[in-house]
Amino acid sequence: MTTAAMRAKLNDYISVADDDKIKAMYVLFKNDINSELEWWQDKHLVKEFDVDYKNWKEGKVKGHSLDEVKASIKKLQVKRDAR
User: pLDDT per residue over 53-82, tens digit each?
Assistant: First the structure.
C-alpha cells in the first residue's frame, strides 16, 4: 500500500473515530505534532533562517518583495488555468 493510500485511509478513519480513539491517537502523536508546528523551537531551522537573513542583509543573495512574489504567483495561476 502506498503512503498516499495509507494517508487517505487514516484521514477517513479519523473523520469517523469516536472521541476516545481520537484522544488516544493525539497522545500517541502529540510530540511529533507539536515539534512540527513549533518550528521556532527547532534550533537548526532557526539558525538556517538567521544565515539566510544575514546573507540577504549583506547583499549576498537577492530578496524579493511581497509584490514581486504575488505577481509571480499570479503568473503561475494564469498559466495553470490556461491549461
Answer: 999 999 999 999 999 999 999 999 999 999
